[in-house]
Every structure is written in C-alpha cells, then in structure tokens.
Write a structure and sequence with these properties.
heterodimer; A: alpha/beta; Aspartate Aminotransferase, domain 2; 2 domains; 8-stranded mixed β-sheet; 4-stranded antiparallel β-sheet; B: about 300 residues; alpha+beta; Rossmann fold; D-amino Acid Aminotransferase, Chain A, domain 1; 6-stranded antiparallel β-sheet; 12 helices; binds adenosine-5'-diphosphate; binds pyridoxal-5'-phosphate
C-alpha cells in the first residue's frame, strides 16, 4: 500500500554568509569556551569501517543476549506498556531507584534509594552536578589526565579547571592538599574535586586505598565535595575491589555518579547520581529544567534486565571479553612501542594510557595513523592546560584481539619512524641554542 | 541535470567536506537538479557508474579531492566535473610545486626551502637547516606541502624548536616547506570564470594565526568583505591573484590566499577546490558580489558543463 503523500514542508531560507556575523552576536558567552578542536574534526575519519578505532570508549555490545532483549520488550508490551509510555517522576522510577543500590552493593557500596536520582547517562549526571554547583569562574579540581568528555561540560559552565597530577596510584593527594591550601590562601574555595578513581578514563589507573582515605579526609577538612565518577568499577579483571570514596565517606561530602552504559548498554543512555539530600534537591530541580525525566521505557527496560537474574552473568561475560582484549593490547604495546615508551597496566575498565618520548606529538602521530587507518585519542584531549602532547588513550573494549594487535603494531611503527626522523634532524642539524646569534640578529632587525 | 555530488572522502578534512556537501546538495535540489551523493572510497568507480551523472560536483577537501586523484578518475570515466583540471589541481595542492611555478612566472610568494623525509634520511638534508634559518630568518614557518586548514603548521621562533616543527610538518605528508614568515594582512581572493570576487580579509579575534579552529568556528574570526584597501592595493592584490591562477591554470575556479605586507602581497596558497561551508570565504565573497549561494553553485556547475552564458 502506498503511504499517503505528505506535501513537502516549506524550506527554511538558507543561512547566508552575512547572517553568520549576526548570529555571532547572539551566542552566549559560555559558547566561547566550547570549541570544536582540529583533532575532533580529524576523528571524523575514524568512523569509517576500514579504520581500526582504538579511539572510542565503546563497550562491546555483540554479546548482549538477543533473546533476553525480546523477552523484556515483550514483557513490557504485555504488562507495563502504559507506564513505560508515560512521563515519570523527575527522580526516576521507584523500582529502578531501589534496584540501583543493589548494583552498587556488588562493589560493597551502600546507598539509600531516596538519595538516588536517575539520569540520562552519567554524562547528564556530571552536567547536573556542575550546573547545581558552579558559577562562572568557580574553581574545580580534577585528575590530570581527566575524562575528556567532562571538560566540555565544565567549560559550558565556565568553570576554572585545575588538574592535579596522577601517578600509578591515581591522583596525588599531597599535590591535591597543596593546591587546596594555595587556593585557600588566595581566598578561593573550589566547589568540587572530580575524579574517576577506579580504572580511570583515560589513564586506566586506580586510586589506592590509602589515597582514597586521604582524598575523603581532605575534602571534609576543606569542606568541598568530591564527585566520584565510577562507570567501570564492576569491570574488574583481577585484584581486590577497593571501597568507593562514597562508602569511605558515608555520603557526607561525596557525590557518586554511576551508569549502565558499560555494564548493560550505552545506547540506553541511563545513569544515576547519589548525593546528600540538599545537593540532590538542586540536582532534581536542574533535571526538571533539562528534560523533566529520563525515558520511562528505558528505565523499565533496565529494571527488568536487572530483575531477570542474568545481569551478573552478562557482566561476567564482558569481563572475560575485555580481559583478553586488554592482554592482547598490553602484549602488543610491549612488542611494538618504541624504546622509552611507558604505559599503564589497568586491572579493569576499557583503557590503556601510553606515553611516548617527549619529542613525539601524538596529534601529529594521529594524523599519520589515520593515514594508515588506525585511530586513538591524543593525550592533549584529556587536559585543559596543554599537557599530554606525547601521550595517548587506547581503547581495548570495542575491537577484537587481532585488530587491536594490528592497530598497535601500526602505531608503534609510525612512532618509531617519527622518532628516527627527529633524531636524524637533531643530530645532523647542529642548530644554534635558543637565543643564539641568529635569533638575536633577527630581533634587532625586526 | 543529473549531478553526482562528491563529498566526504578519506582526507583529514572529511568533516569540513561533508559540511560543504550538505549545503551544496540543498542548493542543487533547490535549483531543480537531481542529486546523487557519493562519499568517495574504495567503491568510487562503481558508485559513479551506477549514478551515471551528466556532471560531477566536487566538494572534497584535502588529499585526493584537491590533488587531482579524483579528477583523473572522473576524466577517465568521461564525466565533466567542477573546478580546475587534473594538472592544475596537482600543481596547486602541492605548495612546493606551486611556489616553483610562481618563481618561474614572477608571482610574489614568500622565500622558502623544501624539506622531504627522503632528503633528510638519504642525504643528510638536516645539515642544511642552520643555513635555511640564516636565509629565511626567524620567525619562520614550517608547514606540510599538501595540507590545508593550517594542520601541521608551526611558527618557529627558537631554532631549538625546528627539529620538532619539521617532524610535525612531515607528519601530514612526505614533503614540507620552511617559509619566510610574512607580517601582513590575511586576504583571500576568490576567482570564478576568470574574474576576481570582492576581496575578503580574515581578522582573527583570538588567535595569532588563522588556524583550523578559527577557520570553522563562527565568531572566532571576523571577516571584512570587501576588505578595506586603498584603490592601488586592491588592484595590485587582484592582479597578483589572477596571475597566480593563470600560472597554475585555475582561472575558472580557485581561492587565492595572500598576505599583504607593507611592500606588497605574497601568495601563500591557491586552493583549487575552495570550501563551501557556512563560514567559508568563497560564499562570503560571492555574496558581497550579489551572488547568492544558489547562484554561486549554479555558476560553478555552468562552468563545468558548457560555454558561458
Ligand atoms: N609564510 C607565512 N607567514 C606568515 N603567516 C603564515 C605563513 N604561512 C602561513 N601562515 C599563516 O598560517 C595560515 C595557514 O597557512 P596556509 O599555508 O594557507 O595553510 P593551509 O593550506 O593549511 O591553509 C595562513 O592563513 C596564515 O595565517
Ligand atoms: C568517566 C566517564 N564518565 C562518564 C561517562 C559518560 O557515560 P554515559 O553518559 O554513557 O553514562 C563516561 C563514558 O565514557 C566516562 O568514561
């Protein structure tokens, strides 16, 4: 049967060049900080199928049981459709708010259902927390490197972001304390510390128990909040789980952000935030303004999945897949990366962070890598202050082993070539030192 | 008319090209043409054959779209296409080749030296870098010979930074150039059908060079069209632009980027496939000449398909 013809809608007049300047005056000041970077534009090639992308943070969705999906969808159609198709409470469906603490309990964290707000992904939780707490110019502290996707959020609220160095045990709490002391002396009180303490994106590192205790203690002493972002805690391949900052603190100064993206499916766009009641109220007000509520249909789906009894089995399966992919990646890096490279050895999560000799700019390396159909995230994306130019984030969750190995091999070979070229130039050129005669002469002339 | 619109591709400027493509597709349909969009990849020849177009509209940027590769394929398939021909694209898309031609034809361009990875590896070319600094002076510009959008470009003020700048430039292609830094106003002259459009001046509002971010971010650069120039400057700039296009054989369509120094203009680049995004310079220039975007697209298409009307 032919569908009835709908007459074409009238077209909007096209934007002409001259109009752009007119719009420029209309943009909010905060959009000045929201830049599209050259890198992100280059990355648009990375979506082509022939590219081995170690750039994304994509979970592997191929193991999601299709039969279970059908079963849940049919179940919703049979006995939950009216509710699933309706608006819901801003805080989220009661059933899901009760089920979320059970998910957190799997890592030993206790939380009260009434402190939980369901959000449209962890990303929205970050947005809502920042919206509730940050005025333009307010200081935020975060890991160095930090989750690249948090930076545009912080920029959108015109936060002044200070990054505190991390080592293999996570954020250096001595530097954290020092920074806070200096800020206090300057009359500034940061609003919160943002950290991904477990299998950090992008570093793959985990904050040690000792430092967890210190971070919570420091936050309490300075009376600022910690925003603990924990998408990866359940994806531990080995070693003992560590208590969350939230459980160490007991919910006084720590706001906990969780997500189903990496343990159920990213396409659900479903996350949550657990916050002390006064903070939670502000978050809920913000969410009302942002989107009224997260999709009921999606919440209903997640709840039924959690109740199906197959959640743990599914997460176990993901862990298996990711562990062997991580092993493949670490093996390939050890084999193919140039002498002088250093990298993290994550016990879980999705990422390895690798640092090359200083003379290699990973933005340039990415340009070369894209030419050979491999992609990664250049380290500079994880900093606000120009650091990270010789580092890179490599994802192992979204690509099968052989492709990981081939991708790492290509990156390693290109890095070798760049290093060789640099050394050849530096060794043969005998360039005058900075401030040598050549430059001085020009300065006079100019 | 049945038009194959080529945009996307595998260059680093893919996203810019897709943006150009979307706009052009809109216009072509508006003008009553039948549009088949093609994202050039391994299936290009088959896609072209299937589409069976009367003409191809090229909205590709960067490698392959501007360097004559795709043009040569189109020529082979007997499909007329927009913009300059294969030879012209090849010459313009390699800044080194273009500068050689300018040298022969007397088109002013900044002093320069070529640098290739092969020369450094096989002939110890790096030993010549101090001499290059001596002759070009500091600051100098290191840039890839073939990239657009200022990717891989470094302004070197300290000789100790030169090795890294050369490695950077060579990351975007096998050859690069070191160029004298010119202190001047940033002008673009678009040429269509042998005629210059009004001159656009790009005035960066935040950054020292008109780089990738400034180029595609609304509000990061202020444009003045027509540029405020004395009558003498304007006519000299136009003449130099036409001379550059003539030298490279792209009088039909090109955008000439120049720096206007106190002692006259220098051509730094000729782009044979100018961008057509909302912030691109060619549409701005056309509009200043009273040519709407649709009219511009029609004119470009007309130059490809037949004698001028
Ligand atoms: N020799 C030079 N002197 C001063 N500035 C330059 C020079 N070469 C390039 N630039 C600056 O860098 C920008 C991009 O350079 P260009 O060679 O046109 O690269 P692309 O092909 O990537 O556009 C120019 O618009 C100009 O601002
Ligand atoms: C540290 C971190 N926080 C938040 C997010 C956002 O996740 P989502 O919005 O999918 O829940 C991610 C996704 O990669 C992440 O790595």
């Amino acid at each position: 049967m032919e569908p009835e013809q709908v007459p074409p809608a009238p077209r909007r007049p096209r934007t002409e060049a001259r109009d752009l300047e007119r719009y420029a005056a209309l943009f909010a000041a905060r959009t000045r900080q929201m830049r599209s970077s050259a890198m992100r534009n280059m990355m648009s090639i990375a979506t082509r199928p022939e590219v081995i992308s170690l750039a994304g943070g994509l979970p592997d969705t191929s193991t999601f049981p299709a039969d279970l999906f059908e079963e849940i969808a049919a179940g919703i159609a049979a006995d939950g459709l009216a509710g699933a198709l309706q608006y819901g409470p801003t805080e989220g469906l009661d059933g899901l708010r009760e089920a979320i603490p059970e998910v957190m309990a799997r890592e030993g964290t206790g939380a009260e259902p009434e402190d939980v707000t369901v959000t449209t992904g962890g990303q929205q939780a970050l947005d809502l927390v920042t919206r509730a707490l940050v005025d333009p110019g307010d200081v935020l502290l975060c890991d160095a490197p930090t989750y690249p996707g948090a930076l545009p959020t912080f920029a959108a609220y015109q936060a002044d972001v200070i990054q505190v160095e991390c080592d293999s045990e996570g954020m250096r709490t001595d530097l954290l304390e020092q920074t806070l002391t200096e800020l206090e002396a300057g009359g500034k009180r940061p609003k919160f510390i943002y950290s991904v303490p477990t299998f950090q994106n992008p570093g793959g590192i985990t904050l040690s128990l000792e430092r967890r205790r210190q971070m919570v203690e420091i936050a309490r002493r300075f009376e600022i909040l910690v925003v603990e972002d924990n998408p990866y805690g359940l994806l531990r391949f080995e070693g003992d789980p560590l208590p969350s900052l939230y459980s160490i603190d007991g919910g006084g100064f720590v706001v906990y952000v969780g997500t189903f993206s990496k343990i159920v499916a990213a396409g659900l766009r479903l996350g949550w935030v657990v916050a002390p009641p006064p903070v939670r109220q502000k978050i809920v007000l913000g969410k009302q303004a942002a989107d009224l509520c997260t999709s009921n249909l999606v919440q209903e789906f997640a709840l039924r999945f959690l109740q199906s009894g197959r959640f743990d089995e599914y997460v176990d399966g993901l862990r298996e897949v990711y562990r062997s992919r991580r092993d493949a990646m670490l093996g390939a890096i050890a084999e193919y990366f140039p002498h002088g490279a250093d990298w993290s050895r994550p016990e879980g999560g999705l990422f390895v962070w690798a640092t090359l000799p200083e003379v290699i700019d990973t933005g340039d390396l990415l340009a070369k890598a894209l030419g050979e159909n491999v992609a990664f995230v250049p380290g500079a994306e994880a900093f606000v202050d120009g650091r990270g130019t010789n580092s890179m984030r490599l994802n192992f969750s979204g690509v099968p082993e052989e492709r990981i190995i081939e991708g790492v091999r290509r990156i390693g070979r290109l890095a070798d070539r760049m290093l060789g070229l640099y050394e050849t130039i530096a060794n043969t050129a005998e360039l005058p030192l900075p401030g040598g005669p050549v430059e001085k002469e020009r300065r006079k002339a100019g | 008319m049945k038009v194959a619109l080529l945009s996307g591709g595998i260059s680093l400027e893919r996203s810019v090209s897709l943006q150009s493509g979307r706009r052009v597709a809109d216009s072509l349909r508006q003008l009553g043409h039948e549009v088949a969009r093609i994202d050039p990849g391994p299936g290009l020849v088959t896609d072209l054959t299937e589409a069976g177009p009367e003409v191809a509209f090229i909205a590709l940027h960067g490698r392959d779209g501007e360097d004559g590769t795709v043009q040569a394929l189109l020529e082979l398939s007997g499909v007329p296409f927009t913009g300059p021909g294969v030879a012209s694209c090849r010459l313009s898309s390699d800044k080194g080749l273009a500068k050689h031609v300018f040298g022969m034809e007397g088109v002013p361009t900044p002093a320069w030296f070529p640098v290739t990875e092969a020369a450094i590896r096989d002939y110890g070319a790096a030993a010549g870098l101090p001499a290059a600094i001596d002759r070009l002076g500091l600051p100098l510009v290191a840039k890839p010979a073939s990239q657009g959008s200022a990717l891989g470009l470094t302004v070197v003020t300290d000789p100790a930074d030169l090795p890294a700048a050369v490695v950077t430039a060579l990351s975007y292609g096998a050859s690069a150039l070191l160029e004298e830094w010119v202190d001047g106003r940033e002008l673009a002259v678009s040429v269509i059908g042998g005629e210059p459009l009004p001159i656009v001046e790009a005035i960066p509002t935040e950054r020292p060079t008109y780089d990738f971010e400034a180029r595609y971010e609304i509000g990061a650069t202020r444009f003045e069209t027509p540029a405020r120039l004395s009558e003498a400057d304007r006519s000299q700039v136009e003449q130099v632009a036409l001379a550059a296009c003539d030298a490279l054989g792209c009088l039909d369509l090109a955008r000439v980027d120049m720096l206007l120094a106190d002692d006259g203009p220098r051509v730094i680049e000729v782009d044979p496939v100018p961008g057509l995004t909302e912030t691109s310079l060619l549409p701005q220039a056309a509009e200043a000449a009273g040519l709407s975007f649709d009219a511009l697209v029609e004119r470009i298409l007309g130059l490809a398909t037949g004698p001028d009307t």
